[in-house]
Amino acid sequence: MSTKNFFNLKIFKCYNKLMNNLPNQNPGQPGPGGFPPPSNQGGQNKPTPPRPPMPLKSPMSPKTSMPPRPPMPQNSADPLMRPPMPPKPPATQQRPSMPSPRPIMSTQNRSASPIAPPPPEITLRTMQSDTESIKQSGGSTPTPKPFTPEQFKKPLAPRPPAPSKITPSEFGASKLQGAQSIESSSIIEEDVESKFNFKRISVWVGTLVIAVGFGLLGYFVIFPALFPSQLPPEPILNTPTTPETPVVPEVPSAPEIPEATPIIHNSFLNSDSSTTLQLVAVDLLTLTNNLQQEAQKGSLNGSLVEVIINDSNGQVASPRILSSILPEFSKETLSQTFTDDFTAALYYDANGTWPVYVFDLSLETNILEAQANMSEIENSNNLSNFFLGSPGSPTGVFKDGQANGTLTRYQTYSNTGAALNYGWEGNKFIVSTSYSGMKKALENLK
């Protein structure tokens, strides 16, 4: 679009605005600019209808196409008549609307440039302006503070760049790759650190071993070779020679056998009679055979015959007799519990012959400990060794009982009259193979 056409378009727009703001003219009155209103062909004047306001648009760039020009209203009487010029608006009326566009000078008249009207004065009251006004006036009514629209124009902040689009798969892959890189870097650091520590420890240990080796080598090998010890020579003594006497080998003497201290026997029972057995060997078989031979001699029913058991050294000690009957009890344990002296007897009744044994508690032994130790005979599998023959099978377990007021423990067997009884009367430990023999022994106990 040329500059001339653009200027004509502006004039036409201003004309339309003025025509829309003016009231309708009566017929016969002069129109705007002093020209008579145009007449119709029929001789009657018709008022010119108001035109709709044209939309204001910003000046178009040269590259923008020119919008179509609206048709001009034409009068039938004078079609070539130019539209009247609008009157100049009064100076008092100012429109506080949009600032006037920059005038474009035509190529015909470049010297005449229109002066842009000053911007309208706009006042605005704010708390800050009222406070300043009251301070300046000394308490009078605050006055509004004038401002121009340019004061509210703030430079626009630069628009931040749009974030790059990342797909979920790329985000997961980058996150996984970052985690893997961090993990791999930490593992590499740990491996490097562990290798470094191991290498450093190995160097220190190797250095220490080498230093110790050199020290020992120098102390035991190099130093004695360089500085041999010089001992003073041994003095030479002139000793007179004496004739050598032949050495006679000593003949070893036979070991001395300690003589066994004879046991002074004191009977613990008031028996009806007594007899002595001489044992070739102190073991269960020899003891049982000798007692059976003595029982075959017989005696009155209810009688108690004491049996003194000897070997080549005299009376056999009680630990040897009791350990041969009950092998689970050692001689050492029994020797700490009882004295060497004991009393053995045979009780006769209508059911047979029943052995009875009385052992004396040692003075150094606590009776409670001895009672606890000897109660272990209930767990022995060799209790039938107390009898001269087989007592039969046990008919039950050990039970509490009493004989002549003394507390006992007993176990019965299938053969008539066979019952193992044991109990404590004072410091005496009594074992009987029949209940009647237990009562007889308690009655005759010294």
Description:
The chain has helices at residues 3-21, 127-137, 168-226, 284-295, 318-325, 331-337, 367-374, 435-443; strands at 122-124, 145-147, 273-278, 304-311, 314-315, 338-349, 352-361, 399-403, 406-412, 419-425, 428-432. A hairpin with a 6-residue loop joins strand 9 (406-412) and strand 10. Among the domains are: 1-23 and 52-57, no CATH class; 273-443, no CATH class. The strands form two sheets. Strands 3, 4, 5, 6, 7, 8, 9, 10 and 11 form a nine-stranded mixed sheet that branches. Strands 1-2 form a two-stranded antiparallel sheet. With 446 residues, it is of the alpha+beta class. The N and C termini lie far apart (160 Å). The protein is built from eight helices and eleven strands.
| Overall pLDDT | 75
Based on CA inertia axes, which overall geometry fits?
A: elongated
How many helices in DSSP terms? 8
- The multimeric state of the shown protein is single chain
Please outline the major beta sheet.
Answer: 9 strands, mixed
- Strand content bin: 15-25%
What does the secondary structure layout of this molecule look like, with pairings?
Elements: H1 3-21, E1 122-124, H2 127-137, E2 145-147, H3 168-226, E3 273-278, H4 284-295, E4 304-311, E5 314-315, H5 318-325, H6 331-337, E6 338-349, E7 352-361, H7 367-374, E8 399-403, E9 406-412, E10 419-425, E11 428-432, H8 435-443
Parallel strand pairs: 3-4
Antiparallel strand pairs: 1-2, 4-5, 4-6, 6-7, 7-11, 8-9, 9-10, 10-11
